[in-house]
Amino acid sequence: MSSQDSIAQDALDRLFLQARSQNGWLPKPVDDEQLRRLYDLMKMAPTSANCSPARIVFLRSAQAKERLRPALSAGNVEKAMSAPVVAVIGYDTQFHELLPQLFPHNPAMRELFAGNAALAQATAVRNGSLQGAYLMLAARAIGLDVGPMSGFDAEQVNAAFFADGRCRVNFICNLGYGDPDKLFPRSPRLDFDQACTLL
């Protein structure tokens, strides 16, 4: 398939048109192989200078999810505790240390970020956010549902899962098989002319 060909309608439906942010989960497990497959898809999507700053902690056990519970807003506790997997999606503030591996044809890129903390921070957040979105699309592509959440205390999450301070949490995403009975009606979206400008 060339880059000009559209993917099949059922793929568009699965990724975008029929996909929903889930509020509840069926008691069906997600195994390690699915998580590895998900990562192997998401890692191939683009980031600037191939910087790949996302770092993910997959919480699968009840004990691991209990470490997250105190940081969650009240409305998100049951969603996370009942999800087969909770992905804590962070970004590596020192991602540039790996650029010799990830961007070997331009060794100067490492020093560019190492010498400019503001640029490194903006790059880590922007590209880590992109990778979090790629994770959600990859999950949907392999048949999983997603439920992204931003209702949490970031410092508590960082203390629980990124205690050395190198990585910082961006957002959280529940993964599994959604319970259709717990979906809300789909909210409206902006029309093209409300959101886009043609110049």
Automatic annotation (TrEMBL):
Domain of life of the source: Bacteria
CDD domains per UniProt: RutE-like
Pfam family, one: Nitroreductase
Database matches in Gene3D superfamilies: NADH Oxidase (3.40.109.10)
Domain Nitroreductase residue range list: 24-177
Database matches in InterPro entries: Nitroreductase (IPR029479), Nitroreductase-like (IPR000415), Nitroreductase_HadB/RutE (IPR050461), RutE-like (IPR023936)
Protein known as: Putative NADH dehydrogenase/NAD(P)H nitroreductase HNO84_21125
Cofactor(s) listed: FMN
Record has Cytoplasm as a keyword: no
Keyword hit for Flavoprotein: yes
Enzyme Commission number(s) of this protein: 1.-.-.-
Annotated GO MF terms: 3-hydroxypropionate dehydrogenase (NADP+) activity
Keyword annotations: Flavoprotein, FMN, NAD, NADP, Oxidoreductase
Stated family: Belongs to the nitroreductase family. HadB/RutE subfamily.
